[in-house]
Amino acid sequence: MSSTPMSRKEQIDQVATSLFKSRGFAATTMRDLALELGIEAGSLYSHIKSKEDILQRVCFKMADEFNAAFNEVKNQDVPAGEKLRLAVAAHVRVLTKNPQAAGVFLNEWRHLSEPSLSKFHDMRFQYEESLREIVREGIANGEFKVTDEKFVVLTLLSSLNWLHMWYKPEGKMSPDEIAEFLSNLLLNGLKNF
Amino acid sequence: MSSTPMSRKEQIDQVATSLFKSRGFAATTMRDLALELGIEAGSLYSHIKSKEDILQRVCFKMADEFNAAFNEVKNQDVPAGEKLRLAVAAHVRVLTKNPQAAGVFLNEWRHLSEPSLSKFHDMRFQYEESLREIVREGIANGEFKVTDEKFVVLTLLSSLNWLHMWYKPEGKMSPDEIAEFLSNLLLNGLKNF
DNA sequence: TTAATTTGCTAACAGGCGTTCGCATTAGTA
DNA sequence: TACTAATGCGAACGCCTGTTAGCAAATTAA
């Protein structure tokens, strides 16, 4: 798969991500993590700074990926409906590429301490604002019949962000198929799907 | 408001719910909880059995409320689309009546230990299955154009269950208005809203 | 009044927590 | 070869955790 092997630090991050996802950040101990890696708890500190250090890396790496994926959509010159479709697909792609990290990003960020927490909030707001912008565009040109773009974006993200709970890479739907399904459902509704 | 005053135990549950919601179960200490109530940590145990005892009560009380609300919809003789609308409204009503407890119910249940955890899983599955039944009905009689009822119900619940994150009782939309908005969005989509 | 119940305090327990320290071993590089 | 960096051990630290025990007030019921 990947040509260069993972550094020990990256291994730790990966295993920690898996534990944070399934047990939660607070309920995962450094001794659990060490056990999973076959080493002693103290040994972890040859590679990482602290427990929260790991969480920060996971959260902000995912934030970067979401931003990167969205930026490829942002300035395309297409109708709002189509742009929203592309944004959904981009979001779903990031979400499904690493469901474990996505789960941590979505559920464990609140265990960040300041100033990381504020920075995280800001990035998230920015991302949501960009989506609202698209919806506003669609409302303005008559594509969307809805009026409350805040509510729409919250609902949109809510339905997307549950994905990491049940998505399995070996499942029968590909990320792109999932994205298409969700786009259709949200844009056209159950009745006109 | 309520005629009979809250027992100390109910007070504890309520304050604990608020803390579990905002900080998470694992990150809330009994000393935090006691502080909030103006007593010492040890004093809590004159009223409750254990920390998880509180969590169990909150989770299963909410589960009961969701079931009760849904049961009033279940056997009504209306088209699937209308029944789904009613179910959404019922779900939203429970969610908004006590957003704090709803948040705990939705996010902290995984800290339940066996056998409560299995019982919780079963109840949840049952609830979701009932919703899938409605969607299947709608697919069978041509009301819904969609084919994958599992996916639909997951998306439906996902968008509803984020509500507790931002709903404020003093906000400008009533629970019924929220329910109507969400029903329209999901049934008709952004374009045909 | 007496008796029972509710409510709370203080102190302590046994164990778990994230983290540090000094030292050893291994692997890579020149 | 010798130097350096990566990797790990094991013990210990100071603190925090849920919970218990024994006792004392306060409240309520009879």
Secondary-structure topology with pairs:
The structure is a homodimer of 193-residue chains.
Chain A: H1 8-23, H2 30-37, H3 51-74, H4 80-97, H5 99-107, H6 116-140, H7 149-160, H8 163-166, H9 175-192
Helix pairs in contact in A: 1-3, 1-5, 3-4, 3-5, 3-6, 4-6, 4-9, 6-7
The structure holds a DNA duplex (30 and 30 nucleotides).
Overall structural domain count of chain A: 1
Helical stretch count of chain A? 9
What is the class of chain A in the CATH system? Mainly Alpha
Q: Measure the end-to-end span of chain A.
A: 38 Å
Structure characterization notes:
2 copies of one chain form a homodimer. Chain A starts with 7 loop residues before the first helix and ends with a helix. Helices cover 69% and strands 0% of the residues of chain A. The first copy, chain A, has one domain (52-192): Tetracycline Repressor, domain 2 (Orthogonal Bundle), CATH 1.10.357. The first copy, chain A, has 193 residues and is mainly α. Chain A has helices at residues 8-23, 30-37, 51-74, 80-97, 99-107, 116-140, 149-160, 163-166, 175-192. Chain A contains 9 helices and no strands. In chain A, α3 packs across α5. At the A-B interface, α7 and α9 of A face α7 and α8 of B. Chain A binds a DNA duplex (30 and 30 nucleotides) through residues 8, 29-31, 39-47, 50-51.
Which tags fit this structure?
69% helix; DNA-binding; mainly alpha; Tetracycline Repressor, domain 2; homodimer
